[in-house]
Amino acid sequence: RVNNKDAMQLESNLDRFLHRISPVVRSQFLPQTEIRKLNSLWHPWEREKVEYFTLEDLWGCYDEWSAYGAGVPIVLSNGETLVQYYVPYLSAIQIFTSSSSANRLRDDVELGECETRDSFSDSWSEENESEKLWRLDGCSSDDGGSEQDSPWNLNDRLGYLYVQYFEKSTPYTRVPLMDKITELTRRYPGLKSLRSVDLSPASWMAVAWYPIYPIPMGRTIRDLSTCFLTYHTLSSSFQDMDIEDNMECAQRKRKEGEGISLPPFGLATYKMQGNVWASGKSGRDQERLMSLSSVADSWLKQLRVQHPDFSFFTGSWRG
Description:
The structure is a single chain. This protein is α+β, with helices and mostly antiparallel strands. It is 28% helix and 19% strand. Strands 4, 5, 6, 7, 8 and 10 form a six-stranded antiparallel sheet that branches. It has a two-stranded antiparallel sheet with strand order 1-9. A two-stranded antiparallel sheet has the order 2-3. β4 and β5 form a beta hairpin. About 18% of the residues have low confidence.
């Protein structure tokens, strides 16, 4: 958990939000015998030690937030401070694995316990569809490339789509992230048992954060009605990338064995007004918001994904 006192030392409200909603997951060390079995395309670096986390531990980070909200310390322009609470909702998720692990995890589900496909109309895991639709390199016959031009076939690079879910209901009818994960796990048990080292670099999720109430209560501040959409990688392939290095208040480097942080690599906002979220010096917050939104857009285009919440948040949705 993030200590509010530590969070207040960050420069801007945007920094504090991104820091506060970044899950820190318990890390484990992969046995030496397992390291040699890793997909060399997804883990090209030779290492003596490999850290990973389980998806079950990741969801545990959202348990309290789903029930009570994540508290973000905010400093207003007049110097007054408060804590605004946000509830996380699963907006989208795509998990790509090796074919062997995907098939094994599908076999774990007995037919009698499966939900009907209609009740999961926004999720599917058909390998033939993934072969047709998902290209990690964004290359197709329309832009001068083809599958034959690639040094590896699609499933080697991208993996097999194990589960995909995109939330399409209105915010008021959604259930918090932990409730949705529990629901999906009944059909896709790998959402608990899979490890970050089992997932391809194309695996990701998006979390929608909706404000509920500030403390102290009784204040109506228009700027605090902003909603956020954060994008997080789920694969160990990006663990050593310093996503937060561009922060002026970058935290100290993570020590071996400490929890693994998953800060957002992309972001979108809705109903952002005023300057509460652009309180950094020299327009740094505005630049960061634009950069994070651009990265999210590029990621979705690279995977050829239509993400309903992103389209709505950015105003590109067409009803």
